[in-house]
């Protein structure tokens, strides 16, 4: 060991580095420096253990560990840990440890904790994976340090590191030795509500004695929810507190059953004190935190603090200050587009530019950056509706009814919501509607013209679309400066949408609404109305699907994807197919999976994407499953329904027949245009994408980007300036742009509806029906799978997709969460180990299920709803 190694004491040390003392050690040192009530201690830094790692890395156990497969990794870790226990302290290590302990009374007890540089980071908690040894006497310190050190080689830690992208072959560890408090009550706290994501609430779990029973999940703790603005205790519930853990006088711990289990273990005054403390810590750390705390003889002590890893962050621009009027948001990326992960930075920029371009054309000026006015905003890969601004105009009932067709669950949530706290005092968008009135007459005139002559409207719109495609291809060949090229593309798109597509689409929708109103008044059934809306012509998305099916029927069913891809490249496929392929690429080559994001490849870029879809259609098609026949059948049903309704109306009033004929003619000609705007937006995006790819290669060649694809981490504005400004560090800008989208990308399940203080709003809980079990919701999401009831983590294998059912879980169960589809626990609270890991892995989790491990037989299929807490058995 180098002689320069020193131990780091707290309080009394400043400037410690994460790489030396780990996340746990650094937070204790920082809190001591802020003069918070942290029990004193010291950190054995990572340098203290360099000789031990050097010894281990030349051992046979290390060589087996490095080469271990997934099947024998557990045994390799166990052998390496056993080798670590055999290591000896050098004279220098012993001297440093003895000198540090001399600062404490002889009868002191200590908590010895591992502190990894990778632990307690904002993106990874390791959730108790490392070792903590409680009630350690001075005589047993060396043994405890060795155990804490060896825990960095534990199988559960190695699995966690592999799952989260850490190199498990480069272990590094520090160890915290801290004087232990003989607590009367202890527990954990969150500076936000982990169940609702409410930033204005703090939540605490507590039990008698040490906090170990709470953290490990051995007992169901008391739960307290406090309002951080008023410090009031919003709610408190008595947990079963099945067991409690206490320090023994001569060292170690003992488990007891406390007779006060029916009493709350924290007073309201203590909860308020904890709330004030956690608010202060959140401000100091500048992010949400969770803590471990203890009360001893009425005094509060902080034992640990770390960033919360499993919550849903809110884009800073969307936040409102605590206590200010809140805004309500709906994530249209999820509801309308089904996009559960953020778009790329460039994809976001493209949508934002589209909104900024179209708003003045429709409304008279660009209001899209004013959160007090805009109905929608695009930020960090998401498209949000600002519901607070929309409701004063549309009205709640109309908005809910409209949204019921798009996202029934979101509509149900909004219907049950008290919107009053979210409505602005002065709705700016509503007050500026007169601007829309100035722009409407020309648009209305175009819609009327389309309505009067739908055949001419269709021909004109198709001509305009063809001209638009030609224009964009000509612009692309002119090699304009990037800024001029982008503006020219957006200008052409805006002209096409305003002058041709929107009036055509609007005339069709207007005809549909008038047709519905007319026919409902005459008692036409909803079923007939639906038939009149099916199999509409000129729907570009439906036509693409039918073309795909036609192409699939031209291929040999026995061809594998690799063979098909090779044959396409060589041009050795049937001529009929190759002709259809060329026509398809010309019309739809700009499309592809996840096409709303410009960073995603198109069919033109990666033909394999299209070939895979064609093969899937080929393999799944049959005489009973023929899309062309289904479409034709529905078209004939629509026409037959039209004739039947017309005949029925002729028996009533002749004027209604003429009215119906007129609106149906418009609807049947123009109704299919609803998919056209997106088709054209994607076409324009593809033209810009091709230019971006060329620019990316050029910037990569001169060393300004680490890869050509890195260009999609920049915005349009970045490029419009950065291409010419050689001083701009585009790589650093790209990294900065990715920070917030990547944080959202790590969230397992982004919410659909939330407010500007983080609160996630959900549909009202479903009533518990026969055959269902109501539990405590712990981690959101819904999953189903076969039950696997375990009493210990190594009792039997947990296969991928199994629902883990256990009485409780501690850190030793962590590897099982990798395969689990969901988790059902008998005991435990919001902040215990199982809850933390489930939320971090995005697994639905519930607790409070009495006799959980004996309710179902292994293999029984159950569905776990971690949002409502409902468990239901599903027919196999």
What does this structure look like?
Helix 4 (73-85) runs antiparallel to helix 6 (141-150) and helix 18 runs antiparallel to helix 25 (654-670). The strands form 5 sheets. This protein has an 8-stranded mixed β-sheet with strand order 18-25-24-20-21-22-23-19. Strands 9-8-7-6-12-13 form a 6-stranded antiparallel β-sheet. The chain has a 5-stranded antiparallel β-sheet with strand order 1-2-5-3-4, with helices on both faces. The chain is 45% helix and 14% strand. The protein is α+β, with helices and mostly antiparallel strands and 876 residues long. The protein has 30 helices and 25 strands.
In short:
It contains 30 helices and 25 strands.
Number of helices: 30
Decide which structural class fits the backbone: alpha+beta
* Percentage of residues in strands: 5-15%
Through-space gap between termini: 61 Å
What is the strand arrangement across the widest sheet? 18-25-24-20-21-22-23-19
CA-based shape: globular
Percent of residues in helices comes to: 40-55%
| Rounded radius of gyration (Å) | 32 Å
Major sheet attributes: 8 strands, mixed
| Tally of strands | 25
Unreliable runs: 120-128
Mean pLDDT: 88
Oligomer: single chain
């Amino acid at each position: 060991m180098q002689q320069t190694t020193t131990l780091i004491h707290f309080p009394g040390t400043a400037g410690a580095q994460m790489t030396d003392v780990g996340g746990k050690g650094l937070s204790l040192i920082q809190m001591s420096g802020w003069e918070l009530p942290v029990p004193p201690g010291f950190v054995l830094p990572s340098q203290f253990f360099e000789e031990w790692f050097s010894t281990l890395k030349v051992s046979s156990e290390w060589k087996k560990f490095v080469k271990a497969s997934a099947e024998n990794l557990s045994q390799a870790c166990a052998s390496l840990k056993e080798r670590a226990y055999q290591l000896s302290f050098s004279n220098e290590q012993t001297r440093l440890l003895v000198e540090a302990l001399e600062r404490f009374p002889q009868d002191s007890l200590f908590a010895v904790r591992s502190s990894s540089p990778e632990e307690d980071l904002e993106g990874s908690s390791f959730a108790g994976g490392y070792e903590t040894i409680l009630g350690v006497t001075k005589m047993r310190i060396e043994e405890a340090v060795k155990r804490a050190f060896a825990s960095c080689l534990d199988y559960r830690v190695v699995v966690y590191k592999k799952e989260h992208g850490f190199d498990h072959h480069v272990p590094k560890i520090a160890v915290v030795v801290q004087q232990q408090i003989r607590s009367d009550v202890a527990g954990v706290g969150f500076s936000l509500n982990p169940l609702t994501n409410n930033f204005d609430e703090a939540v605490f779990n507590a039990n008698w004695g040490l906090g170990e029973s709470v953290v490990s999940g051995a007992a169901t703790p008391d739960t307290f929810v406090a309002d951080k603005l008023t410090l009031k205790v919003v709610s408190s519930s008595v947990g079963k507190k099945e067991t409690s853990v206490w320090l023994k006088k001569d060292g170690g711990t003992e488990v007891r059953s406390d007779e006060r289990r029916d009493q709350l273990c924290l007073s309201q005054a203590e909860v308020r004190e904890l709330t004030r403390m956690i608010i202060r810590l959140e401000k100091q750390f500048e992010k949400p935190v969770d803590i471990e705390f203890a009360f001893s003889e009425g005094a509060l002590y902080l034992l640990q603090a770390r960033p919360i890893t499993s919550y849903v962050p809110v884009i800073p621009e969307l936040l409102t200050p605590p206590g200010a009027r809140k805004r309500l948001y709906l994530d249209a990326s999820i509801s309308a587009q089904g996009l559960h992960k953020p778009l790329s930075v460039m994809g976001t920029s493209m949508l934002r530019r589209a909104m900024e371009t179209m708003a003045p054309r429709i409304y008279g000026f660009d209001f899209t950056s004013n959160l007090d006015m805009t109905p929608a905003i695009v930020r960090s890969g998401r498209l949000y509706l600002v519901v607070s601004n929309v409701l004063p105009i549309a009205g709640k009932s109309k908005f809910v009814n409209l949204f019921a067709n798009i996202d029934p669950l979101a509509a149900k949530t909004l219907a049950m919501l008290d919107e009053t706290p979210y409505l602005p005092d002065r709705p700016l968008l509503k007050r500026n509607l007169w601007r829309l009135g100035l722009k409407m007459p020309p648009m209305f005139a175009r819609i009327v013209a389309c309505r009067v002559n739908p055949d001419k409207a269709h021909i004109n719109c198709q001509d305009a679309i063809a001209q638009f495609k030609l224009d964009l291809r000509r612009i692309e060949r002119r090699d304009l400066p990037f800024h001029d090229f982008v503006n020219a593309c957006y200008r052409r798109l805006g002209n096409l949408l305003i002058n041709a597509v929107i009036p055509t689409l609007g005339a069709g929708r207007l005809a549909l609404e008038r047709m519905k109103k007319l026919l409902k008044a005459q008692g036409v059934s909803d079923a007939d109305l639906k038939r009149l809306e099916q199999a509409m012509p000129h729907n570009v998305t439906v036509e693409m699907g039918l073309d795909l099916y036609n192409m699939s029927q031209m291929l040999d069913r026995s061809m594998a994807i690799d063979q098909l891809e090779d044959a396409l490249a060589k041009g050795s496929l049937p001529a009929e197919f190759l002709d259809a392929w060329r026509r398809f690429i010309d019309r739809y080559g700009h499309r592809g999976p996840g096409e709303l994001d410009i960073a995603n490849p198109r069919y033109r870029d990666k033909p394999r994407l299209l070939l895979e879809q064609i093969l899937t259609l080929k393999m799944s098609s049959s005489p009973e499953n023929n899309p062309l026949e289904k479409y034709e059948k529905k078209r004939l049903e629509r026409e037959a329904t039209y004739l039947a309704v017309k005949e029925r109306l002729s028996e009533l009033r002749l004027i209604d027949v003429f009215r119906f004929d007129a609106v149906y003619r418009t609807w049947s000609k123009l109704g299919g245009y609803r998919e056209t705007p997106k088709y054209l937006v994607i076409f324009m995006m593809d033209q810009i994408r091709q230019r971006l790819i060329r620019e990316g290669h050029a910037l990569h060649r001169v060393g300004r980007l680490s890869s050509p694809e890195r260009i999609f981490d920049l915005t349009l504005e970045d490029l419009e300036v950065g291409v010419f400004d050689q001083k701009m560090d585009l790589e650093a800008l790209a990294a900065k742009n990715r920070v917030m989208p990547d944080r959202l990308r790590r969230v397992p399940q982004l919410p659909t509806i939330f407010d500007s203080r983080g609160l996630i709003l959900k549909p009202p809980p479903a009533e518990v029906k026969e055959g269902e079990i109501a539990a405590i919701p712990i981690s959101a999401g819904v999953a189903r799978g076969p039950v696997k009831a375990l009493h210990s983590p190594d009792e039997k294998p947990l296969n991928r997709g199994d629902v883990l059912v256990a009485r409780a879980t501690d850190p030793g169960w962590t590897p099982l969460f990798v395969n689990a589809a969901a988790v059902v626990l008998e005991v435990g609270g919001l902040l215990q180990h199982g809850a933390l890991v489930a939320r971090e892995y995005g697994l639905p989790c519930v607790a409070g299920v009495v006799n959980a491990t004996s309710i179902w037989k292994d293999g029984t299929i159950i569905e776990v709803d971690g949002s409502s807490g409902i468990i239901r058995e599903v027919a196999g």
